[in-house]
Amino acid sequence: MDIIFLSERNKSAPLSAYAFKKIVDQKFGFQISAGTVYALLYSMERGDLVKREVTQTKRIYELTKKGTEVIDSISVLKDEIFQYTKNIF
Fold first, then answer.
1. Which of 35, 37, 42 lies closest to 1, judged by CA?
2. Interval 41-57 mean pLDDT
């Protein structure tokens, strides 16, 4: 889930928890609970991958420098990651 959020955030403007939940539902066809999304975002915040900004209407999450570096590293290694997961399944 971390990779999905970082990847989607890297492609678009800052995301709210609701927007991320909607993306997962549309792209992958399954619904995740709001509690799962907030737990994920809280964990990523503690790991300095995202930072939260509170607007008048919602909380949005942006990538930090570390988050950008992580997603860049994953992008470079995506073929190896794909092969690894393919071997698992």
1. 37
2. 91
How many residues are recorded in the chain? 89
DSSP string, 17-54: HHHHHHHHHHHHS----HHHHHHHHHHHHHTTSEEEEE
All domains of the chain in start order, with CATH: 2-88 (1.10.10.10)
Using CA atoms, how far apart are residues 37 and 81, in angstroms rounded to an integer? 23
CA torsion sign for 12, 25, 7, 5 is positive
25: Cα separation from own chain's centroid: 14
Task: Tell me if the pTM is above 0.85.
Answer: no
* DSSP state, residue 12: S
DSSP lists the bridge partners of residue 15 as 61
H or E element at residue 16: strand 15-16
